[in-house]
Amino acid sequence: MSREQMPSASTGRWLSQRDNFSKENVEWEEFYRNNRSKVPHLTGSVQQYRQTMHEAKMRAQQRGTPIVEGLKVDDLTTDSPPRLNLRIYKPLSPEPKGAVMLYFHGGGWALGDLEGEDNICRVLCVQAMLNVVSVDYRLAPENPHPAAIQDATTALRWVFQNNLTHGFEKSKIYVGGTSAGANLAAVLSQISSTLGVDIRGQLLRSPVLCSSELHYQRMGLKSLEQFVNTPILNQHSMKQFIEWYQPYDRADPTVSPLLSRDLGGSPPTFIMICGRDPLRDEALAYADKLEERGIPAQVAVYSGMPHAFWIFPELTTTKAATQDMIHGARWLISEIRST
């Protein structure tokens, strides 16, 4: 198998297994040797970062198999300032489809738009029977922390207030995202109760969960220092992203949700983790903390794979990860949270 998906109850602590997840993935190593020029290496200004990642993501959109049937897609803008662009994906199946997922794209809080992960939203909509609301949140460094969180909150309120218009069920709201987008999803899960909204589950793909270097060291996390020169995301680019994001306190839970004292209130969680990702250890530690607090969680780890490898749809591991994501979303929808 190109991935390792293990029931948490029988495997113990996730972080203790991290060395096993670093082992070489033969398919990726061969692909990287033959396609090095296609793999994004982020350097330069924020504009250069954006251009590099935009080209990589649009290549992924073009190389993937587009889903054009079985759903309806609309773009709209919220009324209240700051005005926010949203893309709404609605399944056309006659089955009940009131469940809705707010989805946040990746890009280190500084890159990305509604186009870059359009295919992912289409897959979630059609294959998992989810209404998906993709959020075009404001980007750093022009709009530093907490602008993206404010936009995430605006989007959540919009879903909650417009449920009847769009056929959403208030009792079936989920969040999901990739990398920094998964960070926003995790933060929103933690603060949603203060907004009077119950988030039923979160789908986190290669999430950013701890940006405090002090806590990173105290917790024995090592992957950021281990993966200095990895493709797609490495130590330097991750540190650059957090500098652009400019949080007032990197240990604050709205920046580092792993450090929240209220993780026991987290919803059921599905986490996708890459074995050679600078973000690997914080995601493994997050899975451990959820387990310790009795939160239903499922984890899929892709050994030897770099951060967000799924931007290459030709990889068999990408196909496997896509199926895992679909199954993870379906599991979240079916999961009945214990009281």
UniProtKB/TrEMBL annotation:
Keywords: Hydrolase. SUPFAM superfamilies: alpha/beta-Hydrolases (SSF53474). Gene3D superfamilies: alpha/beta hydrolase. InterPro entries: AB_hydrolase_3, AB_hydrolase_fold, GDXG_lipolytic_enzyme. Residues 101-310 form the Alpha/beta hydrolase fold-3 domain. Pfam families: Abhydrolase_3. The keyword RNA-binding does not apply. One of its GO terms (molecular function) is hydrolase activity. Transmembrane segments: none annotated. This is Alpha/beta hydrolase fold-3 domain protein. It comes from Aspergillus vadensis (strain CBS 113365 / IMI 142717 / IBT 24658). The lineage of its organism: Eukaryota, Fungi, Dikarya, Ascomycota, Pezizomycotina.
